[in-house]
Structure formats: C-alpha cells, structure tokens
Write a structure and sequence with these properties.
The structure is a homooctamer. By secondary structure, chain A is an alpha/beta fold. Chain A has a domain of about 100 residues: Rossmann fold (3-Layer(aba) Sandwich), CATH 3.40.50.450. Chain A is built from 6 helices and 5 strands, in the order E-H-E-H-H-E-H-E-H-E-H. A 5-stranded parallel sheet of chain A has the order 2-1-3-4-5, with helices on both faces. The first copy, chain A, is globular, with a radius of gyration of 16 Å. Chains A and B meet through helix 3, helix 4 and helix 5 of A and helix 3, helix 4 and helix 5 of B.
Chain lengths: ~150, ~150, ~150, ~150, ~150, ~150, ~150, ~150
C-alpha cells in the first residue's frame, strides 16, 4: 500500500499532531497529514479580519466558522483516515462534529483520548475503527495499516 | 406542505423535547417527532443488560453505544429536520456527533442553545439553517416552515 | 402512473401557481403541488420575527433565507418534478438557484417563461426537460406525463 | 494544505477573475483556477458555429448553452471551491444556476457581490460559506484557507 | 414480501405488457406495473402538440423525447425491477438506453427477448439478473420473487 | 419510534427466523420482517425451473442465484436493519456476502452466531452494531430500539 | 482548462475513433481518449478463450460480455465526456446501453450519428449535451470545451 | 487503457497473489496490486499488540478486525477491480464480506475458486463479472482488459 491521506482533527492546545507527524516521519511512512488552522487566534478572527468586524459576537463567530469550514470540509473530503483528538479541556464540539461528518462520509475514523473520557465519548468511539490513548499508538496503527509490519 | 419528520437530538435532562412537542401539538402542526432513548440508565445499560456484562467499562459503553446507534442512525436517516439541543452541563459530544452526521446527510439542521454557548458551538451553528435560543422559537420555525404563517 | 409530486418554484407576484393548480384540478390529475412560502412579507421577515431583529440587513436577510431554505430544500427533495417560473420583474436569482439544486439532484425540470427571456435563461432551459410559455402548457405536460392522453 | 481547485463562475464583463488570479499569484498560492468560456461571442455562438445555424433563436441558444455546459459541469465537478460573482448588470441567471448546482454537489461556495445586491441574493448567500464584496477579500480567504496565515 | 413496483420498458407494438399484467393478476400478485406512454402517435407528437410545432424534425422529436423522459425517468426511479422487452422490429435504442439507466441506478434488470437476439443483446443480458424468452417466464419470476413459491 | 423494517439473512435450516418473529409478535413490536426464500429446493431450482434446465451446474446455479438476488437486493435495500445469522454448518458465504452489501449501503447490521464462531467472523462482527448469541437477544435489541424499554 | 478524459463508445467498423483522435492531435488538444476493445473477434471470443468454451452460445456471449464490461464500466467511470457513435448497420444496443449508463452517472454525453437516424435516437439525443453528425464536429466541440476558441 | 488498480482479497495461505502479480509483471501490464495484510499472525494480533491485550478473545479479535478494516476499506475504495479468492480451507467469511462491499460500491468483481466450490459460492459468482479457476486466467483477463489482446 503506497501512501495515505490523514486528517488530524480536534484539540489544538497540545502537540499531539507534531508527535504523530514526527513519529510517522521517523518510521519513514508515506503519509500526507492535513489539519485545520491550528493558530487559535487566526481561527477565531479570520471572518472578522477578512470580511469585516461585526457588532454581535454571534455573527463574528459565524463568519469565522464558515471560512474555517471551507478548509476543513475540503480536507476531510480528501482524507482516507480522520483522526479526532479529544483533550480534557474545552467543549471541543467541533471535534465531535467533524467526527460525525467523517463517519457519514465513510472515512475510517480513529479517536484519540484518555481512558477517563470513555463514557462521554462512547458514541464517537462506537463509530470508530480504533480508539487510541496515545499519539504513539496512532503512529503504530498508521504504520501497520501502510506496511503490515507490527512492532511487537 | 403536509407533514414533517423531525428528530430531536441532544440534551436528555431537561424537558425541551416536551416543550417542542406540546407547542407543536397546540399549534395543530402535522409533525412526527422522534428522539433517541431518553431514559438515561436504559441508554447506558442496554448493551450490558441485553448482550451481557463486561468487566471493562470501555466495552460496556461500547456495546451500549452501538445498540443506541441502531436507533439514532435509523431515525436521523428518516428525518427531514434534525434539531440538536446543547445544554450547559455534560460533554454532549454525542449531540455534536449527531449534528455532523445530519449535516453530512443533507438534513436541515436547527441548533438550540443559550447565547452563552455561542463561541464553542460556532462550527455547528455555522452549518445550521437556524440557531434558536428557546424551544418556543423552534416551534415557531416549524410552524412557519409547515404553514407559511408568521405569528408577529 | 398514479400520482406526482410537483414543486412550483419562482415568481410569487402573479397567479401562475393558481392557474396550474386549478388546471390540474379541472383535469382531475392526481398531483400534490408544493411551493415556497409565497406571502412576500412573511418570507422576508421570518428570520427577524422568530429569531430576533438584526441591525444589519445582511444578517436579517440571512436568517430569513435560511429558515425558508428548510422548507424549500425539504420540498425539492421530495418532488418528482420541479417547475421554475421566471417573470419579467425582479432579479429572481433564487429561482435560478432552486433550478440548479433541482437539476443536480436529478429532478425533472420544467421551466416556464416568456419567449423574450430565452437568451438570459438559455443555460437553465438547456438543463430542462421542457420549456413552456404558459401555465396551460405546464398543465398539459403534467396531464400527458400522468395519463398519456394528449389533447389535440 | 497543498493546492486547491477553484472554479470562478458568473460575470464575464469585468476583470474580477484576473484580479483574483493575480492576487493569488502574487501571494504565491498553489491554486488552479478554472472558468467558463469568457469570450462572450464564442459562448453565444459555439452551438451554431460548430453544429450549424438555427432559424429559431431558441434552438440556437439551446445548442450553445449545452456545449458550454460540457465545460462548466466538468469543471464544477472537479472544483473544491466555487466562487460565484454577481455584477450589477444583466440577469446572470446562469451564475445563480451554477451556484445551485455547486451547492447541491457539496462544493464550498463563495459569493462575490456588492452590498447593494444583498436582498435579491439572500438565498444564494445563505448557502455560501463566505460572502465577499471585493476580489481582494476572495484572495485573502483563499490564502487563509490554504496557509492558515491571516494578514491583519 | 409484500408488493413490488415493476417498470415495463421497450417494445410497444405487441401485447407483452398485457400478458405480464394479466398473468400477475391471475396469480394474485401484489405488483404495481408502470410503463412509458404506449400510444405511439402520442409519444411521437406530445412535444409538438403541447409546446408548438417545429420546422425541423430534429427539434420536433427532441421536445417530445424530453417530455416523455419526465415520465420514464420518474417511473424508473421509483421501480424495484425494470423489465426491458426487445422485439424483432425497429431500432429500439430507447429500450437499451432505459436498461443502461436502470442498471446504473442499481435496479434489478430483467430482459425479455427471443433467443435469436442473444448476440446483439449480450451486453444488456450480461447486466441483467434474468433473461427471459416469454412473458410467462417473467410472470413466474415475479411470482417466485414475491412469494417464494415455484410452479414446477 | 413507530415501525421497523428488518431483513433476516443467512442460515435457512433452523427456526431462528420464527423465534425472532414470534418473540417480536409476543412483545407487540411493530416490525415488518422480510427474508430470502427459505425453501431450500426452490431457492436452488428456481433458475432451472423457470428459465430452463442447464447441462452445466455452474449455469444452473448461476441462473438461480441471480433470480434470488432480485428478491434479496430489493429487500436489503428497503430494510432499516439487517440481521445476519451464521450457523455451524455449510459455507454460508451468501450470508457474509449479504452482510457486506448491507454494510456498504449503510444499513444497521446485527450478527447472530455462537461464540465459537467469533474468530472467523471477526471482520463481519467488527462492522456490526450488535453481535448476539441468541434469537432472544435479537428480539430484545429490536424491542429496545423501538420502544426504549429495557427488560432487566 | 487542462486536459479531458473522453470515452469513445459505439460503432467499431468504421474509423470514426481515428478521425477524432487525429483531429484532436492535430489541434494539439490535451485529451486522453479511451475505448472498448475494438477488435471484433477478440471482443466476441474473450470469454470463451480465457475461461473456456461453452456449448450454448448464450453463455459463450455472456462470459465475453461481462469481461468486456470490466473494461467499459471502468473507463466510463473515469471519463469526463462519453461520445457515443451510432452507424447505419447492426443493432448497436450496447452503444445505447453505454449511453444510458453514462447519462445516469452524470457524464457529459455527445452523440454522433447521421441525420437519418434522428427519430429512433431521439431519446438518447434528448439526454445528450451535443448531437453531432461528423467526427470533425466532435473535435471542434472538444477543442472549444478545452480552449474556448471557436474556429469560425 | 493505461493502468489499473486491482485489490486481491481472500485466501492468505497459498501463493495465488504472487502468481497473479508475477504473471502480470511478465506480461508487462501496468497494474498496481494491493492486498490486505497477509502475515496471518500480524493480522490476528494487531489490535492487541498496538492497543493492548484483552481478556476476552471476542474483543481481542474485534480490535484487530477493525484496524485491518482501515486498510481493507481504504484499498477497496481505491480499486477499479476486486479479485476475491476462495480456497478449500477455513471459513473465509471475510472474503465473502469484502466481495459484498466491493459489489455494493460498484467495483468490477472477479471471483477465483475451484469448480468444486461453485454451489456454495453461487451468489457471489452471480454478482461477479468473471469467475476464474486459475490465477493464470485472472492474469489473462487483466491483460485483455488492459490491452485488448487475446492470447489464443
């Protein structure tokens, strides 16, 4: 198997994406990783900065969310696998929303979260093809999927 | 327009579903409302009770979540409109996950939440055709959609 | 053939819908006709009246347009045939937008307009299965499609 | 994110396409832009010139519109993003028709028009992920979507 | 199994439809049969009679063919099974065209023709779930599919 | 939730279908059950009996399998839930084949088999929303999905 | 616009494919042309030669037709445009069958035939985006679609 | 025709994949072959090794099966042709399950098995475009499909 396209959705305040990307690079895996815009302030402000400020925060957020959706929908649509990371802070409803879209589009879903979040994430986990607790496990899954080799 | 099928997803600890259903009934609207199983303990225990207990809570939750998915996927698939309610408690990732599925399937999405939740819900709101703050507004939307009448 | 579902999109300032519906009724045709909300002020105001006024007209229109979309997308999705009427006034971009959606969803498209509008409507006409100049012709098409009888 | 395919639909009498393409080039963005045939007389005459003249202008237009559709449907189908420009002249129903097709196919829709056209375009705007007033804003959206950088 | 929707496409100059419908009725089968307009002159003339005569026969045929397509596409879309009959006269390209549409839409295809037509119909037969030589065989297939009973 | 359509695929030599249907009836569940033809000899012979004997058993089987497919594809397409039963005898590849089709069509899949078959069925189980060991469990799942009640 | 994939279906006894391919090459058009196997005896014999002879010609043809379908379905699926040529000899039902498949898959359809075949081909023509009489016209359409230039 | 993507599903205990790949290579065919992980112990253990051991073999198998599904679903989705091999040992339900998925996704299906397995595989064979008995025949089919040449 020669090459995967993997979208990394969810938490933007820890370095889990870098861990996965570096792990994959270290393992020599032929994977294109994509992600939403992870610079928090840009993601929040893009609508207002580009299309003009709004008095109501609802519309300010609305314009930003939709511009971000241009990127995220396009990338989820091109992905073979969508990895969704849930951390222990914030609401992260956008992560669960992305997971729902990915699932409905027939993408292979991998969910990454601590065991402590199992109960509230059971519906998302139930739709996933793998539930990992560490970025390292995600790398090992991707390595196995691509190469068939298993590091025992 | 004669009849709508509306799925009510999300929060199960307040009476927002009853408010919408009674409001629609009072207005004489021809709507079939459906919902997930809203008896919390049944929803949590169905997997273990029917298919057997599990030692690990992960698998206990897993079996339950999937049985619930038989109901929710079937009903979302049949719905014209999916209303998703977010309250101020709990993680509610399953609500956002349902919203993602509904959106990807092309269902008309109505989101119901307090103004205070606007920022974390901006991605879900951005995909919705209406964002309401009260159950009464949802009823008025459904009434208008069905009849074209507008209570001014 | 027993029964058709026909959505009547476009112009709301003349009585073309009534002409078609009465013609079909007079001919005893088993057809369910649906339409957008045709009370102009309700269609314009629904967002602001139900979900609250907006200072900027852009967002006022936006909220209304999306609530109307709940109705129009649902009805176009259920229709076998979409008739789109273009009059000689107003921009009517929503009519052409509906036509594009209907075409992409594989609905049978009938366009109704005066010969004088042929040139600017050539792309829409090119996607249609019939281009009529009068409401009476639309009735005759529907009668023929349903019954196979041809009034010579 | 590495590369986008953007279809530029609508108005052909101003240089908005050139502005967007040059802006994207100046910003070093990896974007393939496509468009309908924008030489007006070729677009009008292609059917008659290639397949033979027609006495009735209806069929003359019809043949041309369909040949143009071979190009536009193919390109919209391949696009990640469809930008639709509405100017202040002409009926431009083909632009709204393209927007409807793009929306129904799940393409990310960006609409470009003056604020003065807001009301008649509210249905199209309501389906869009961004509504811009200038070609420069479209370039900034595309730059942000591709790179995540925001020019403040 | 309770009820089938069967579209009968193809030859209109023999009574094969009546044979199948009467056989199904005699066997008490719960089947809704549909068909194109089988009055040849109406099928040929509908475009010109309803929408006006044309000087060129190409456009006369074109308008009629498209109005007939409103009926046939709608009915094929609703059918569970499409039976296509090829006789020994005429070109019958519309029958093969219907078969292609039905196959691509995932309909169960039954082809009905004499053994002598096997070679030129091999591609259509190759896509069919049954190739029958007599109307009686089609009735027996439908009876078996509905009831599971087999008349030995 | 008001009514389910459940297709019962697989083993035809034991009475598991009757157990499920009687259990559902006893529980007063509003379910339409469908199934392939379960009279083994009819299922094997239908092609040869209706369309004529074949010298080669390959073609004899081929004709029969395709006629049976008219029924099974139609019913799987209409089902909300597909239950697939694997017994301890025979190859039962058609059951696994049906499961693959149902899964790819997005149907909710319930698999029913003894624990001893877990290893060879792990891929099918992995795609299922429930894996039951007894017909009684299937009835309880269907009851819970329909009513939300849980028999503890 | 940079490159098209064009499938050339239909008649295999004249050199119309060569005319189109040479015309496109002479015009410097970036087009990949594909086609069914056009060596008649190979197309007829492939099933029997590879998978073994059959006593009944029905099965001999059947095996060949299905192997050919592996090629034709794959190529039609990859094509942007499907050109279907009808000559004045043979039944050519496979050409009309291909046209139906291509149409249902949303491919742009160009039909090529003499004016004398207009009446029996009216249903196929009615679904096409262009109806040409000469291979040269097809080349000019492809050139215009790709480049926008019109040879007057 | 320039290049095919062929997924080789099924039996992993004989060298049929190598035979096909070497045959294709010897014939100079431009084909990318893909396959599931064929190292049996890795395929069985991947879930437990990467995501942790399980006490119950059901969940051990479950985790492994789903990780394998990430690979198999991705590759089947990218394939033009899916070849499914059934040997005379083991249950091989995963092979039949893959065949069902491939068929429902509209992939061209080639089945490879001994004549002795015809009866239990008749439903899978009935959905296939070719049923081969030897790896050499599969190579010849692929060669013919790609080149049109027939080795007589």
């Amino acid at each position: 198997m020669s090459g995967l396209n993997v979208y990394l959705s969810g938490e933007i305040h820890t370095d889990w994406r870098e861990q996965i990307e570096q792990g994959a690079k270290a393992a020599g895996l032929d994977i294109v990783f994509t992600a939403p815009v992870t610079v928090h302030e840009n993601s929040d402000d893009c609508g207002a900065v580009i299309l003009g400020e709004e008095e109501r925060t609802f519309w300010r957020d609305h314009k930003g969310a939709k511009i971000n959706a241009i990127r995220t929908r396009t990338l989820i649509g091109k992905a073979d696998i969508v990895v969704v990371r849930f951390g222990d802070k914030y609401k992260q409803w956008n992560a669960a929303f992305d997971a729902g879209i990915a699932y409905a589009l027939g993408k292979s879903l991998i969910v990454l979260h601590d065991l402590s979040l199992t109960h509230p994430l059971k519906e998302v986990d139930g739709a996933a093809l793998a539930v990992a607790e560490t970025a390292g496990q995600v790398v090992e899954i991707l390595a196995y999927v691509l190469t068939g080799d298993l590091k025992r």
